[in-house]
Amino acid sequence: MSFVWHPNTQMSEWKEFDHIVSGDGMWLQDSTGHRMLDAVSSMWCNVWGHSETELIDALYNQACMIPHASLFNITHTPAESLAGHLIQICPNMRHVFYTDDGSTAMEAAFKMAVQYWQNQKSPKNMLASLSNGYHGDTIGAMSVGYSDTFFGAYRHMTPRCIRIPTPNHGVTNWSDTLDHLSETLESNKSIAAVVMESGAQTAGGVVIYPEAFQTAVSQICHKNDTLLVVDEVATGLGRLSHMAEYAAQQSNPDIAVYSKMLTAGYMPLAATLATDKIYDAFLGDYSDHLHLFHGHTFSGNPLGAAVANRNLELYAERQLIQHVQQLSRIFADGLDVMSDTKGVLDVRYKGLLAGIDIDINCDVSSANYTIYQIGRKNGVYLRTLGNTILVVPPLAISPEELSQILTGVSDTILAL
Ligand SMILES: *Cc1c(COP(=O)(O)O)cnc(C)c1O
């Protein structure tokens, strides 16, 4: 009997869950001794595998110093140096606000964007976002990344957000979306910020933006004096083969958000980064109440920050981005071959992120349930979204293990 209520899970379809007891590099081992390659980086956050001693040491050493000190009235070196690290990585960003996970980091971003205008007595107070985007599961994040299938039950609780339609999977011409965005921002002067995932929509089924799309969104925002918030929770820090994806996309956001991979998947931590322009609008006399009314108990937790610091050092020491760029070519070749596999409808990929649409009919049990079980037999841990299999390997994976993952995935598809 288990008392754990699992996330985003129809509990009735799982008679039991495999108990993961240890990690060895890219492998997960369960209590029966069965091993699976972590093809989803334990929900898109693992970087170096599960037994990286450099990170475990960083965690241990910090725990011996102080495991938790808040950022309320005091500060600590791990949070300070991590902020310095992030500022170096992220062009134009100058200030780092810490939260615990992607959703709360997005909530902080929304509040920053809206209060930025409030503090200047501007009436701008609405958010606009791209349809099919995903920004987390909390109420504010659901409103901005709204999906009827997932969040319909909570619709009445989600504040209105203006959604700009995006094309269906496979459509490469996004000019209608840009036109729609331009018209919306020109006609509606109450929009405080446009919120978008950077580089690609991940939870929306891996939708890769066409070239220059994000640049154009950024230009439209600037032209209309609207802020741009980029969600790099899934796509930043190397997933699409760049540290700051927005820079690679030649876009100029005012706020950028990071979480997954920030600690290499070892601790929950997130960061909302802002430019001087944003930050300065929150300065004033205390009695003006201009400061950001947001903060979490574990904001900037030293354990998370210490691991994140070591993680980002390792990115540089081990030239991880070059590794990802090389690996992404092997990945692309393997995925191109897979697109000819029976049952595969479409394959989309960039960097070390891929979505494979499969032809599967699941009435009673979910595709995810079925695919997990078959993937397990083929030695790969998978978590499917709808009928899209996501392949999101740890960034430091070896070419051999990456090929093993691809073989495991195609064997799984063939066995469906
Ligand atoms: C996962 C994710 C989030 C939410 O992060 P959590 O840590 O699950 O709250 C937000 N945005 C994007 C793009 C994500 O992939």
Strand content: 15-25%
Average predicted confidence as pLDDT:
96
What is the SS-derived class?
alpha/beta
Shape: globular
Strands side by side in the biggest sheet: 4-12-11-10-7-5-6
Low-confidence stretches: none
The total beta strand count reads: 17
Please report the distance between the alpha carbons of the first and last residues: 30 Å
- Count of DSSP-assigned helices: 14
Helix-residue proportion: 25-40%
Radius of gyration: 21 Å
Q: What characterizes the major β-sheet?
A: 7 strands, mixed
**Bound ligands, each once:** pyridoxal-5'-phosphate
Could you characterize what this model shows?
There is one protein chain. By secondary structure, the chain is α/β, with parallel strands linked by helices. It has 14 helices and 17 strands. It has helices spanning 41-44, 53-65, 77-89, 102-118, 139-144, 148-151, 175-187, 213-223, 245-248, 276-280, 302-317, 320-338, 367-377, 399-414, and strands at 20-24, 27-30, 35-38, 95-99, 126-130, 162-164, 191-197, 200-201, 207-208, 227-231, 255-258, 270-274, 344-350, 353-358, 380-381, 384-385, 388-391. A seven-stranded mixed β-sheet has the order 4-12-11-10-7-5-6, sandwiched between helices. The protein has a four-stranded mixed β-sheet with strand order 1-2-3-15. The protein has a four-stranded antiparallel β-sheet with strand order 13-14-17-16. Strand 8 and strand 9 form a beta hairpin. Helix 3 crosses helix 11 and helix 12 runs parallel beside helix 14. The longest helix is centred in the last third of the chain and has 19 residues, at 320-338. The mean pLDDT is 96.
